[in-house]
Amino acid sequence: MRNPRGLSRRQFLYRSASGALAATSATFAGTAGWLASPAQAIAADAAPRRGGTLVASWGGLEPQALFVPGGGGSSPFMTSTKILERLLKIDEKLAFQPVLATDVRASSDFKTYTVTLRKNVQWHDGKPFTADDVVYNVQEHWKPIAAGVALKALKRVSTTDAHTVKLEFSTPVPEFFFKSILAGQYQVLVPKHLYAGKDIITNPVNNAPIGTGPWKYGQWVRGSHVAYARNEQYWNAAQPYPDKLIIRWWSDPASRSAALETGELGVAFSNPVPARDIDRLVKTGKIAVETKGYENAAWTVTVEFNQRREHVKRREVRQAILHAIDRKFIIDTIYFGRGKPAVSPIFRSNPLFFTDDVPKYPFDPAKANALLDAAGLPRKNGSRFSINLVAAAWFEENAKLGQYLKQALQDIGITVKLDSLDRATSLKRIYSDYDYDIAVSNFTAPLELVPVVTQFYTTDGIVKGAAFRNATGYSNPAMDALVDRLTVETDNTKRQKLAHDFARLAATDVPLVPLVEMESFTLSRTNVRRATTSANVQGDALADVWLAS
User: Fold this and answer.
1) Residue 408: inside a domain
2) What are 497-549's pLDDT values in tens digits?
3) Domain count of the chain?
4) Residue pair 511/307 in contact by the 8 Å Cβ criterion
5) What is the DSSP string of 7-71?
């Protein structure tokens, strides 16, 4: 194995995102032939079978649009990524793999990156995919919307030829950080010829996307499903294997369980049924459970404190409230033991940046009461103050957590008005109107912290109407400066220390608090093969999946 830059062993393994997979990552870092062909990768398994219809779902509801530029949550993420592709992906072994890029090279000062694109790729309408498409996306899609602060140091993006793009930055950009942008959850590529000169947010093409992916848009039946057809001109001629893909939504977890049992549903991602049902389903012999595939999308459930509201805008009040929350009870009762207490926005599943050295808030109602008394908020007629708690009920567990939190807070003298709301109303109340005191929500954390995790805590993460960003209004110059340094630091050891400092400050100020590191799982019929070949399976293109007879 060749060390591509004379790095120390620790630095070298850091770039791979997983020490056990340093060899794979090393070849990516700048050598020729850095990936086995898709055909070679498939050959390691049984020969895939062509044909059939795959029906897929997830543990949530229908999206507001099939593609939402810059995010919009897990549902549009799932529907869009079968059609729209990225430049890179992170596979199930935590190694970067090519998609529409075949090589990514950094200059010696980490201020310039040269990206070589795959040739002979077509958009679904027959137009060629070229470097101009990438330049458009970087300038008009990623920088202003999808990547945000991750590309704020970008000075220039240009084409060298039809299949080469050069990105120049005003400051150094860490290599792992840059490749994580290219493989990022929201950094898909849209066709310039259909978007240039139009509002990317409101473009009607968002509901009938045109991409380069293995699946082509067919039909969206509102309230039921979206149908896809195999892309016969896909750049990997062997894929996809099924004839059709259908992403369907069920209104409740019990319906998904029944659909899995009958075979109406083939594979379902992101905790599609209550954890209590897993053992029963697996015992049928027709359904398998898989927990891998979420390494770059670690799920958490959060409480978010609106900094614009009286009482909860005070740090000492937020810290007191956290002592009233029994996370073990939440895990055991609501998640049936499938999870771990979260201690900070960086999770234990992150091998690069996790630290346990942060302030913690063990369950201690007596301490919570004492802290609220010390904050000058005594009980009057049994209540200290009142709050509005919004539980975004896109997961069954969130509604139950809202009910638990209402009781836990009332136990320490806080009167709670609980609103458990549907997806559309929750998005509006939390992220557009900021109409809540405390909100129960969720996010998925990738391995790279910037910008997906950090934007919940930085001032530039406050974007009114943008879902799953800084809706709390928290703004701290020290946090902003810390994240700015994390964004440009290329020394891996120093960058890890900055990440730990970020975790400690976030766990001290607690504007948004992950409560549980949820154990994510996929359920599939036993004839569904290779459905989890990504570190973020819900956003995988499902090009590898095939159906055994």
Assistant:
1) yes
2) 999 999 999 999 999 999 999 999 999 999 999 999 999 999 999 999 999 98
3) 3
4) yes
5) --HHHHHHHHTSGGGHHHHHHHTT-SS-S--HHHHHHTSSPPPP--EEEEEESS---SSS--TT-
Q: In 3D, which of 74, 122, 61 has the Cα closest to residue 520?
A: 74
**Going by C-beta distance under 8 Å and a sequence separation of 6 or more, which residues neighbour residue 302?**
440, 441, 442, 443, 512, 513, 514, 515
For residue 254, give Cα distances in angstroms to 301, 414, 548. 21, 34, 26
In a domain, 17, yes or no: no
267-269, strands of its sheet edge to edge: 215-221, 225-230, 244-248, 53-58, 267-269, 522-525, 287-290
Per DSSP (E only), the strands in 338-492 are: 339-341, 385-392, 414-421, 438-445
276-305 confidence digits (pLDDT tens): 899 999 999 999 999 999 999 999 999 999
> Which domain CATH number covers 196?
3.90.76.10
The CATH number for 237's domain is 3.40.190.10
Q: Which two tokens stand for residue 123?
A: 């958009």
Q: Which two tokens stand for residue 346?
A: 């960086």
pLDDT tens-digit series, residues 51-78: 999 999 999 889 999 999 988 888 999 9
Q: Are residues 357 and 280 part of one domain? A: no
* Final residue in a domain of this structure, among 206, 238, 271: 206
Cα–Cα distance, 181 to 446 (Å, whole number): 11
- Are 392 and 469 in the same domain? yes
Asked whether residue 69 is domain-assigned, the answer is no
Cα–Cα dist 534/318, whole Å: 37
What are the φ and ψ backbone dihedral angles of 207, each rounded to 5 degrees?
-100, 0
Collapsed DSSP state (helix, strand, coil) of residue 269: strand
Rg value, the chain, Cα: 23
398 three-class SS: helix
In which domain, by residue range, is 415 found? Answer: 298-518
Are 534 and 410 part of one and the same domain? Answer: no
DSSP 8-class letter at 84 = S
- Asked if 441 and 402 touch (Cβ cutoff 8 Å), the reply is no
* Bridge partners (DSSP) listed for residue 387: 416
Half-sphere exposure of 71 (CA within 13 A, CB side): 20
Whether residues 92 and 131 fall in one domain: yes
Residue 104: inside a domain, yes or no? yes
